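Predict the structure of Histidine kinase.
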Amino acid sequence: MNSYIKLLFTAFCHIIFWVGVYFFYTYFLGYGSLNVNYVNSFSWYLMPSTIATSYFFLYYLFPFYLQKKKYFLFFLYSIYTFIISNCAIILSILFGFIFLDASDKITVIPLTKGLPFIVFGVYMVVLFSIVIGLMLFNYLDQKKTEDLKTKFLQTQLQLKEQELKFLKMQIHPHFLFNSLNTIYGFALQKGDEAPEMILKLSNLLDYILYQIEKPKVNLQQEINHLEDYISLEKMRFHDSLKVNFQKDILTENIEISPMLLIPFAENSFKHGKISNGFLEIDIKLSVTDNELVFTIQNPSKNDVNSNVGIGIDNIRKRLQMLYPDKHQLKIQDEEATFSVSLKIQLEDFQNN
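Done. Here is the predicted structure for Histidine kinase.
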């Protein structure tokens, strides 16, 4: 239906244009003439040659030769077209003189322009119509290009959204597997901590199932999530886990993408090295008006592959998609220490 309406609109614009050309001919040829009917009729004889020449250039020579850089053929066929159209115009003028000639000598030559001026006027109209047509084609091409760019960007955005959803879905089983493993161990030992662990896990699952679908969550919710996870790990490690979690939050109501911090803590608990009977992990979080800085450090097992698991790979991709050119992630695996430093610029995101 839309294409049909566009076709009708295009045809209507063409008709309006050529009607305007017709009135130009009547004015150009009959200025000062008293025989209006003769001039109007004579103008009709010039229309077929004018329209045919203009459309031949616009719809054949330009797209098939000039735009395809066949310059020699375009020049050659343009000369042929000029010769043939010139003959057609002259014949149109002669037929107009012959068939519209009247017996009254006053009206034998009612036109105010001679043959050269008439031919010149026709070619000026042809040139004008070609220029208008090329400008219109250029505008339509640009509009079509912009539409294609918009559709391409929309497609890219949809693909990124789907990929982001897939990455979020990966977090669920990975996190749930580790947590259930911990609770399973306590259940086997019939530990008193199991009920409390199940309660904290239920809070975490509530966060995962309902909050992670949001594009952003309040930073405090993410911190609570992280603290619940740390509590679970402390129960699992008993007295062999020491976590130093320092927070320096100068700005409230900051929003970030959910599940950004937990994968780093999870990686430290899983791959950290127990030294002298303890696993010591240092976590620092500082937030200002325009920057979030999160660092985590733990003893290293000197096993690079073990420190880069599903969670870290996942978070790299998510950060690249959510904060392109607005974050810095540094992961260092030195001789005795594994550390992660994450910086996120917040000025463009906290109010989104």
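The longest strand covers residues 241-249.
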